Amino acid sequence: MIKVLKMMFFTLAAAAQSANEQSSNVQAAKSQAANVQAPTAQDAGASTAFVQAPGDAPHWTVRGGLTVALHPKAIHGEDEGGPRGLIRLGLPLRSNESFARLLNFIAIEPVTRDGRRGFSELETSPTDGKQGLRFWFDVPRRGESILRLTIRTEKFANGAHPFVIAELRTARPDEVRFEVYAEPDSAPMKQCILTATMGNYQRLRRLRLKNRIVTTAQALPQDPGSGFTRHAIFPLKDLMRDGSGVTVEASGDERDPRLLSQTLPRGLFWAYTGENFTQYWRQPEPVDADLAAVVNARKTYWMSQIPIPGGKSFENFELNAAFHPGQVFIYGVRRGG
User: Fold this and answer.
1) Which of 44, 96, 141, 291 could, after both became Cys, cross-link 148 (CB 3.0–4.6 A)?
2) What is the tally of structural domains in the chain?
């Protein structure tokens, strides 16, 4: 999980194809991805729709919506904004705010065919030996209504070497569309998981499925102590589906999160002061046949004995399926619970 950030603030499935076949498929998909460019636009139109932070920083905002950033640029402020190896997502956390604040992180966790899972925020960089793999943006493909950001990463210890395209659209400003691919030198991947890592921040406790809402206590009744619960897995048949695809939603259960946040130690990062948001993952059609929603939970904040006010809440939140080049996962937010 987000080890460096939390320590600082706590004072702070196998496939039948051979590896060569996958590599061939990957390169073809990669070529296809490169050719899917944003529409051509006049510079003026594009510049008003998408804003990059000064100094060519790895920090982009779609007008009226989400901000996507990478280390070392914080969503808001001049510090590094947390650890490497995470995609930072933010927006104004209160309706009267004009600036974005961090809401969640997205980690990249590829699983190779031998079952080894990589952890982008916890692994040691092969370049400088520091914790957290280095992420960077290629030159963006920027149009009047679509911005495509290719996120490159260092190779994982298990040999996986994915890359991700993050797409922002003016038509859906509160979503980021992620497409997952493999570099030519990547070990064959069984899955390439994109997980939202910080549900404890907003204290997400309600998971909306097809015909029901499941709480943290119902999905994960065990006591995790100061660690994590096991994962709860909800298969495709349990997820909401309409003509556009599949969606799973997570939200809090507090009328005003600021009230319980006031019971936490002064200055603690985890004292969430934003409004209620519904955070969701969705996959558009065609949906992967093995798609599942996966969550775990904690009752204390990471690397501490500080109880989460109101009790256990979801921490990691993701959609999982067997990897294939060009696989799409969309993360989004909606004000209100």
Assistant:
1) 141
2) 1
Alpha carbon of residue 256 to chain centroid:
24
Q: What is the DSSP string of 66-105?
A: -EEE-TT--SSSSS--S-SS-EEEEE-SSTT--S-EEEEE
Residues 73 and 79: their CA atoms lie apart, in Å, by 7
Contacting residues for 201 by C-beta, under 8 A, at least 6 apart? 103, 104, 270, 272
**pLDDT recorded at residue 303:** 81
Measured CA to CA, the distance from residue 221 to residue 297 in angstroms comes to 10
pTM to 2 decimal places: 0.87
Q: How far apart are CA 306 and CA 143, in angstroms?
A: 46
Beta-carbon contacts of residue 334 (< 8 Å; ≥ 6 apart): 174, 277, 278, 280
Contacts 24+ apart (CB under 8 A), 272-276: 272/201, 272/202, 272/203, 273/93, 273/94, 274/93, 274/94, 274/101, 274/103, 274/202, 275/93, 275/94, 275/95, 275/335, 275/336, 276/202, 276/251, 276/252, 276/335, 276/336, 276/337
In degrees rounded to 5, what are phi and psi of residue 239?
-100, 155
- Which domain does 22 fall in, by range? 3-335
Q: What is the CATH number of the domain that holds 327?
A: 2.70.98
Examine the pLDDT at 6 and tell me if it is beyond 90. no
Least confident of 23-37, 75-89, 134-148, 213-227: 23-37
